[in-house]
TrEMBL record:
Transmembrane segments: 20-40, 52-74, 94-117, 138-159, 165-184, 212-229
Pfam families documented for this protein: MIP
Subcellular location: Membrane
Top-level division of the source organism's lineage: Eukaryota
Record protein name field: Aquaporin TIP5-1
Cellular component, GO annotation: membrane
Gene3D superfamilies for the chain: Glycerol uptake facilitator protein
Coiled-coil ranges (or none): none
Family statement: Belongs to the MIP/aquaporin (TC 1.A.8) family. TIP (TC 1.A.8.10) subfamily.
UniProt organism field: Cinchona calisaya
Topology in the lipid bilayer: Multi-pass membrane protein
Keywords, in A-Z order: Membrane, Repeat, Transmembrane, Transmembrane helix, Transport
Length: 252
């Protein structure tokens, strides 16, 4: 009975609007993030060795993620990331059926953005996330996991209605931590923290090498962040998990 109720809850009009919001926001974010990387490489063919390239990509990611989270916050919670959705599911803020449909929406948004960039730039190479030659897959997964932990923990804090109304400050905090993490890890893993982003660029770029790094690390980091925030650090301010997406209705 509970399963049937959750399935029905996942296909209501509000739920469908949430999936569309996640699709649009993920498209917006990935289009800007991947486009910025492509532009920097177009202007500087050897841009991988330029520190200004890293700074530019980090700023573009921070700005794009801030806007993407802000525009979807009041409808879907502004996850824009399968890892964030997984962290919310582990925390009991979103049901499993809705988690799966959120993932599908986010993956489609990322793939569409990357394919559009590839088509409109006349086949220019779509950059994919890759780990540094001296790093192991385990080390790269750990790094991505730690960064995603900080990202999801920030999302939890920004969306916690008991902390007061954050308005636009919440999405800005999420964007800033993402940009900071890219500055810290860009040369090592690319600073993904987002499985949909990595998958979309890999599909359009034609290379799935080390793709597991960008799923295993972020999902584990997100799960730990959700568990720690809700059960250890702020066990008395947990948001009720029985709304559409838990914290989503309150917005970020």
């Amino acid at each position: 009975m509970a399963l049937t109720s959750r399935l029905q809850h996942s296909v209501t009009a509000n739920a469908l609007r949430s999936y569309l919001a996640e699709f649009i926001s993920t498209f917006l974010y990935v289009f800007a993030a991947v486009g910025a990387s492509m532009s920097s490489r177009k202007m500087m063919p050897d841009g991988t060795s330029e520190s200004s390239n890293l700074v530019g990509v980090a700023i573009a990611n921070a700005f794009a993620l801030t806007v993407a989270v802000f525009v979807a916050a009041n409808r879907s919670g502004g996850h824009v990331n399968p890892a964030v959705t997984f962290g919310m599911a582990v925390g009991g803020h979103i049901s499993i059926p809705m988690t799966i449909l959120y993932w599908i929406s986010q993956m489609l948004g990322s793939v569409m953005a990357c394919l559009l960039l590839r088509i409109t730039t006349v086949g220019q190479h779509v950059p994919t996330h890759a780990i540094a030659p001296q790093m192991t897959g385990f080390g790269a997964s750990m790094l991505e996991g730690v960064m995603t932990f900080t990202l999801v923990y920030t999302v939890y804090a920004a969306a916690d209605t008991k902390r007061g109304p954050f308005g636009a400050i919440g999405p800005l905090a999420v964007g800033l931590i993402a940009g900071a993490n890219i500055l810290a890890s860009g040369p090592f893993t690319g600073g993904s923290m987002n499985p949909a982003y990595s998958f979309g660029s890999a599909l359009a770029g034609g290379s799935f090498k080390n793709q597991a790094v960008y799923w295993v690390g972020p999902l584990i980091g997100a799960a730990i962040a959700g568990l720690i925030y809700d059960n250890v650090v702020f066990p008395d301010v947990r948001n009720p998990p029985d709304s559409l997406t838990g914290i989503a209705e309150g917005g970020v």
